[in-house]
Amino acid sequence: MIESSDIWLLAGGAVVAASVPILHRVAGWMLAGMDTDWASSARDWAALAGAGPKILSALEPLSLPAPQPLTPRHQACVGVAAASASSVALWNVTGFAAAAVLALALGLTLASICDLRGRLIPDALILPLAALGLVLATLGYSVPVEASAIGLVAGWGSLWLLSVLYTLVTRRHGLGLGDAKLLGLAGAWAGWQLLPSIALVAVLLAIMAAILIAKGRPSTKMAVPLGPSLAFATLLALGTLGRLPGGLL
Fold first, then answer.
1. CB 175 within 8 A of CB 163
2. In whole angstroms, how far apart are CA 154 and each of 71, 112, 146?
3. Which of 101, 129, 191, 202 could form a disulfide with 230 if both were Cys (CB 3.0 to 4.6 A apart)?
4. Three-state SS at 225
């Protein structure tokens, strides 16, 4: 006998996978309306403030590449990964909580595509999803609201500090503020207790992706964005909440 939770699990994964081409197009529209060369704006403001040539040259390496479309093969890989992670997140979840998790899965998949295409994650995606996580916690559908609020602040603050230190030391764009907001979103949904596990899984997924890219293109030097790994690690973490006391109802 098929239960309602099984229907959500199977249908949710299928919906996410089938939505990837549409989300890819939406990501293009969103990135087209964003300033991808934010370092240029920073240099302009620094110049107006009378900054010297050393400061202006230090900002040069922070420019991001222009957004590029994903190949059909890469879109298929995103679809498989997103559908698998979404199915895990929907494990033993029904009703309103399942609908919210499905909305989160679609939003995180869109955020991942934006990060893969343009190394940017729009606030218009992350902030509403983080707020939805807090609302679920407040209504008693997920972790305690205190754990959700602490997770939001701790997740965002830890990666924000790491990103600032990395940029100051290396003068290169590494971890972006979008990654910090993503980890904050993860904390809002899963609670602060799961943040170390989510970060660890995300790093492992990113390393695996880097190894696969290196094998396929040994002579190509390519940075691997952390956003997709954080997104999928968050969905995997939510799957464990469905089997934990006080988790998703």
1. yes
2. 36, 21, 12
3. 202
4. coil
CB 188, CB 148: distance < 8 Å = yes
Q: Would you say 137 and 145 are in contact if contact means Cβ atoms under 8 Å apart?
A: yes
| Position 222, amino acid | M
Band (pLDDT 50/70/90 cuts) for residue 40 is very low
* For residues 133-149, average pLDDT: 92
- Find out whether 149 and 118 touch, Cβ atoms under 8 Å: no
User: Mean pLDDT lowest for which of 76-85, 86-95, 226-235?
Assistant: 86-95
Using CB atoms within 10 A of its CB, is residue 41 exposed (0-12), middle (13-18) or buried (19+)? exposed
pLDDT band, residue 9 (cuts 50/70/90): confident
Kindly state the average pLDDT of the residues 77-92. Answer: 91
Instruction: For residue 203, count CB atoms less than 10 angstroms from its CB and return exposed for 0-12, middle for 13-18, buried for 19 or more.
Output: middle
**Burial of 159: CB neighbours in 10 Å, binned 0-12, 13-18, 19+:** buried
Full-prediction pTM beyond 0.70? yes
Do 110 and 22 touch, CB atoms closer than 8 A? no
First to last CA, the chain: 21
Interatomic CA distance for residues 113 and 15, integer angstroms: 16
Q: CB–CB of 230/85 below 8 Å?
A: no
Residue 13 has pLDDT above 80, yes or no: yes
Structural contact between residues 156 and 181, judged by C-beta atoms closer than 8 angstroms: yes
Question: Which tokens go with 113?
Answer: 């595509």
